[in-house]
């Protein structure tokens, strides 16, 4: 796994798991809960440290920290604290399991995770899914999806994207021409060509293909996808293209739209803030500021309230205005 260093949450020092466990127990014991203590401890320790706190909590009190959080907290604040406690290695597998369980499939979650994770991360998600849920992730996803959307998800699940070695300009030219002929020049669209090229070529190769495509067609590849495809496939193709261009920019946009307009998509806001907090949230903040002319911090501040807001702002880690 790549060593990520652009997160807002890093290991807390000096760290004392027992002292934190005692402080949390005191905060939740008896009548009422001291939410401030809970959110301050959990947002300022990294995931590995939170696991140590949970283990110390059980050792000292014979109680399950996550169960206590669930019984003492409510609403979005509870969801956020419980998400922070989920071991990092299982986070994505858990999100996917819940996206394909019960009535209706949450295509948004499938799209976000499978478009943005590296091949190594996808391999890891599949293994964890198998171990934790004794089920094959690909089978589960194919059982709940269909059409070209399903095909592209399966391609991404193979985690066989070409490695980033030197770019072959002749192949760049060829891929750009193939995409042009499969979309803009064709009556109807040959989706399969888009799926194969966008799902399997290396990141550096595709960045060159997008530039070449613009030169050949006069369009950004996103404009063509927007015109030539629709529904879940369109959203997934666009997410793949955006992540090829820049994963932090993709997440900045995801966060922006989770808070734009009436109502907030709290599930997305929580999922992205928690899952990227130790990876690239600093880069996401930078992209957010650059692309939306305001800071992520101020957007969260305007859009949320209470302890939920306090915790999200601590995860955000600072204002960029």
UniProtKB/TrEMBL annotation:
Is Cell membrane a UniProt keyword of this protein? no
Source species: Chloebia gouldiae
Q: Which UniProt keywords apply?
A: Annexin, Calcium, Calcium/phospholipid-binding, Repeat
Per its UniProt record, what PANTHER family does this chain match?
Answer: ANNEXIN (PTHR10502), ANNEXIN A5 (PTHR10502:SF26)
- This chain belongs to which protein, by name? Annexin
The similarity annotation says:
Belongs to the annexin family.
Q: Name one GO cellular component term.
A: vesicle membrane
Question: Which PROSITE patterns does the record match to this protein?
Answer: ANNEXIN_1 (PS00223), ANNEXIN_2 (PS51897)
Under InterPro entries, the record lists:
Annexin, Annexin_repeat, Annexin_repeat_CS, Annexin_sf, ANX5
The signal peptide here is none
- Single annotated GO MF: calcium channel activity
